[in-house]
Amino acid sequence: METSRQPTLDVGEYRVVECLDPGSSGVNRWLAVGPDGAPSVVMAPDKTWADDPGYRLRFWSEANNSRRLTGRGTAPVRQVSSARASVPWVAYDCFPALPLTAALAAHGDPLPAPVVWNFGVLLAEAVLRAHTQGLVHAGISPQSVLVTHQGALLTGYGLVRAAAVEGTERPVVPGVDEPSLPPEQRPGTRPQPPGDIYALASVLTFATQAGPSGNGTSPDPDGVLARCLAADPAQRPRAEELLQVLRGAAPGSGGEHPPRVVAALDAQASRLPAPPTSAPPAQAPVGERVVGRAGDQDATETAAAAPSRPSSGPRFSASTPSRRALLVTAASATAGLAVGTGGVAAWRRFAPERRERVPRPPRGVAPAPLWRFPLPERDPTGQLPLLSGRTLITSHKKGILGIDVHRGKKLWSRDDVLTSRLLDAGGGNIVVAGGPDGEFLLLSARTGRIKWREKKYSAVESSNQMSLLLAGADEVVWFLTEDYGADDGVKMAVVAYSLRKRKKLWHAPLPSDYVETATQPAEGAAGPALLRSELLIANTGFGAAEEYFTYIALDRRSGRRKWKREYQDLGIETADLVIPREDNTLIAGIVNGLRSMSLTSGKERWTVPVEGGVDDSSAVRNGVLYAADRKLTTYAVDIRTGKVKWKRPRENPEVEGRALGGMTLTASGRTLLRTGPAEIDALDPQDGSLRWRLATAGTRELSGLPGNAVVSAEGVAIIDNHDSIYALPVD
User: Fold this and answer.
1) CB atoms < 10 A from the CB of 144, how many?
2) Nearest CA to 537 among 561, 573, 571, 568?
3) In 268-426, beta strands by DSSP E
4) The pLDDT of residue 274
């Protein structure tokens, strides 16, 4: 192979020797020598793409998540650049190696069919293994396939996802040739398993010149490649079927590399010093649990160690994936579940018999989900309160259910309550507003047993009906009532109710239409707030008489009105951040700013300029507020002084102006989870640096939408993915 001139690519401590695929557009593979003297293949984008901060971060994130891919047919990842590198890169531990395009150039003709089918077996195994782990490769092309003495290896994980955020058209994908890009991914849809099948078939067709056109020299075994290249993803075979057909066509031994390809590999090896004789230790897949039970076979195979010296001929194994792997993939394809960056195991539900420590993945690698719980009948307005740090409660169209947050197992379900509003009542109990006759009830979060029902405020018993749950603490619940029996219109009032004594403690009238009762206010937005001695009620009603946003403060013990305050910087229809605090502070979003003011007087204390207002998603810990503006720049602000400790702009300019999904601190406070339009970012709360990025995946019509980190218990974060929820191991 002809060697290019000495490149100037900056790949950290690696010394770049030559470009292996100089004809590739956007992303190239380079032969390089690592700091330990061992040769590697380094993949990196060219300067044009590396100068795009959004692409640079997406490439880095995908490279890190590719560490999950291990075993035959996958190039082992040796190292990934830092997140702040001017050019992101990933180093693969394989040498000598040629991109498939270079191998074809060395041979001078399409490769013999036996060689290609042997390659196909290895690549199909790698794709099947990825799919059983909940991963979609989304980067298979002739450039991303490396030919080594041992066979074919996949690189380029996630290049399609790196090219553009979800929903953005992909006319060009750096490092992926146009014929290998599945047609459904061009408009910007989320890559799914059938896309890998299309891309792999395109690669094999390219290598043999076989395919539906019929103008090549090699047959299409059982017509499988033509079916893989179907425009409709639903018509393509699954990975296990493709693998079985290719295994039937592959000769195993006898499909040796053509002499010119072997010579090109040997020539490459001769240009560099011999690599170290010791092979790197095998690695367990990142984020996988190992269940310590005798006979358990649910462990993913470890990464194959790179050979110390190339052999003189190819070595192909006749092994196949386990029957369990085939069954898992078949089930997942039947269910039609989608997956994305970071290995969201959409079809895997991991529920160990006991909680076990999950290995912390390397920095930059998103953790694998512990379990996933489908909720196809989910109430879209339902809440997800977490009780006692272990039981997650959710409502669906037929009732409510409790889920063990650490195991992902259903604890109980009830279909004798309506789609409900839920409120943590303390002591492991939950208040449910939505009995069959409009009553509210108290039930045990652990068992789902109803302890009692209260019908006094139901439509059956009274014209004075409960309309909105406001707050709960210390075995007391506060709720809003509306009296439809009055002659002068509907009257509103706040009721304090003792859960222990099961009686009303006090009743405080409110102005008519002061509160909007159709939907439960979102946390962090304008709505009721419970402080140490006061209950704050906001004027969210459409018929409220005030011109500006207003709070009425009621004494928690007596219901006596303590004060009323209008805030002239806040519009009455504000949808921005509103956080009242115990220290007589109100933190709120204003036009192009974040402001702190006195809660009782409204006097300004400090203002932080932001662009386009503040999103209502936020998190607070140890006197620091974490919030984002409308351009999705995240701020860490000292609440006492208004000093901005750090701010991190959104690295994807394409998503500016799109709402943030959520901002959640993990239970330990060591990780900040920021949900954007297409992924969840894990940030270091100390400096805002990115730890990992995870593109989530829903199902069916929601497959292109990200989930939202809604709550965290010890060691796990719960992600609400619309029609399912799943748990990520954190901290």
Assistant:
1) 29
2) 561
3) 371-374, 386-387, 391-396, 399-404, 410-414, 421-426
4) 62
What one-letter code names the amino acid at 712?
Answer: S
DSSP assigned state of 422? E
What residue has token string 């094999």? Answer: 204
Residues near 591 by Cβ (< 8 Å), separated by ≥ 6?
Answer: 613
Q: 3-state class of 245 per DSSP?
A: helix
Q: What percent of the chain has pLDDT over 70?
A: 75
What is the distance between the alpha carbons of residues 179 and 141, in angstroms, rounded to a whole number? 8
In terms of Cβ atoms closer than 10 Å to its own Cβ (0-12, 13-18, 19+), residue 97 is: buried
Degrees to nearest 5, angle at CA 343 with 681 and 12? 65
Tokens 């075993």 belong to which residue?
71
Whether 646 shows a pLDDT value over 90: the answer reads yes
**CA angle at residue 541 from 538 to 545, to 5 degrees?**
85
Report which listed range, 6-15, 314-323, 422-431, 590-599, is most confident: 590-599
- Please state the φ and ψ torsions of residue 529, each to the nearest 5 degrees: -145, 140
User: What does the alpha-carbon distance between residue 630 and residue 598 come to, in Å, rounded to a whole number?
Assistant: 25
Q: Write the CB contacts of 512 (distance below 8 Å, at least 6 apart in sequence).
A: 489, 490, 491, 492, 543
The single residue listed with the structure tokens 């701020």 is 635
Quick: pLDDT tens for 582-640: 999 999 888 888 899 999 999 999 999 988 778 778 899 999 999 988 778 899 999 99
646, 672 contact by CB (below 8 A) = no
Report the C-alpha gap between 475 and 430 in whole angstroms: 10
Of the chain, the end-to-end C-alpha distance in Å amounts to 48
Q: Report whether pLDDT(462) > 80.
A: no
Nearest CA to 636 out of 682, 586, 681, 672 is that of 672
Distance CA 250, CA 260 (A): 21
Q: Is the dihedral angle over the CA atoms 369, 370, 374, 378 positive or is it negative?
A: negative
Q: What value, to the nearest 5°, has the Cα angle with vertex 584 and ends 581 and 585?
A: 60
What does the alpha-carbon distance between residue 271 and residue 12 come to, in Å, rounded to a whole number?
21
pLDDT tens readout for residues 219-261: 788 889 999 999 999 999 999 899 999 988 888 665 688 899 9
79: left (phi over 0), alpha (psi -120 to 50) or beta: beta
**Residues 6+ positions from 5 with CB-CB distance below 8 Å:** none
User: Do residues 95 and 41 touch, judged by C-beta distance below 8 A?
Assistant: yes
Give CA torsion, residues 404, 410, 415, 421, to 10 deg.
30
User: Does residue 655 come out as left (phi exceeding 0), alpha (psi in the -120 to 50 range) or beta?
Assistant: alpha
Strands of the sheet with 421-426, listed across from one edge: 421-426, 429-433, 440-444, 450-454
pLDDT in tens, 359-413: 555 667 778 788 888 877 666 556 788 887 888 888 776 778 899 988 889 999 8
**Number of C-beta neighbours around residue 167 at 10 A:** 16
Residue 690 pLDDT level (bands cut at 50, 70, 90): confident
- Among candidate residues 511, 509, 506, the one with its CA nearest the CA of residue 556: 506
Distance CA 12, CA 87 (A): 9
Q: What is the per-residue pLDDT across 261-293, written as a single tens digit (0 to 9) for each?
A: 999 999 998 888 665 554 443 333 333 322 222
Helical (H) or strand (E) element with 234: none
pLDDT band at 89 (very low <50, low <70, confident <90, very high): very high
One-character DSSP codes across 93-116: ---S-EEHHHHHHHHSSPPPHHHH
Cα distances (angstroms) measured from residue 191 to each of 133, 159, 184, 340, 715 = 15, 11, 8, 7, 29
